[in-house]
Amino acid sequence: MPPEYTVTRLSTTPVKGLMLHHPDSIELTTQGAAGDRLFFLVDDEGGLQSCTRNPGLYGLSATYDAETGHLEVRRGDEVLHRGLVEEGDSVDTDMWGLRRLAGDVVADPTWGALFSDAAGRQVQLVRARGSAFDVEPVTLLGTASVAELAARAELAEVDSRRFRMLVEFEGGGPHVEDSWGGELLQVGGAVLRVRGPVKRCAATTRDPDSGVVDLQTLRMISSYRGRQESVLGPGACFGVYAEVVEPGGVAVGDRLSRVAGD
């Protein structure tokens, strides 16, 4: 892989399913970007909740101060709640049948009430012991792949934020990332091992700001890529997963390159 691939955007959120932040740089650990997906939501039966079936979460953004332990949730400029995160009962959550994630319910009931109102169902906020990533801690997507999707659908553009990928990059042809399976990549100061394709869900059909279903992304992807195999079964795949082999910093503008001799 020639060294002309460049990081164009990074996307993180401290609460899984809430609006994304786009920092200039991140610190990658074996659990993913430091501070990313530290918290997640579960229903009364312990089922993992995401923005796919909870459009009320759209418009909510969160920030977390690791030094003070305070979490803040906003809707636009309005602070809905800010408070110290103290852990309560432990929970064990099924991550889509692929792994179990240990966590602790946040003790302050205000958080559960806030997110229950937003989701329209009873949920609890949980602090992960690690990171609440789905399959692997890193996801990668090329801007050429997004441009190809738009072209195939005869659209001027498709907002790549709807795919909620940790690392976006430019360079190469459409879906070049699909050819990197099993390879080691140097991305800034980190080394990644690329794994399988990301099977997309209905969250990608929603506008990333409003949560309104406005684009049939799954049909669009399948119309020219077909149904592909993934760790989550066959489906509309777009982008790839990666594990972190060597932690390090990654910034917008950093290069991606294949590790020599891999």
Automatic annotation (TrEMBL):
InterPro entries: MoCF_Sase_C (IPR005302), MOCOS_middle (IPR005303), Pyrv_Knase-like_insert_dom_sf (IPR011037). Residues 99-259 form the MOSC domain. Transmembrane segments: none annotated. It comes from the Bacteria. It holds the Pfam family MOSC. This is MOSC domain-containing protein. It comes from Nocardioides aquaticus. The gene is ycbX_2.
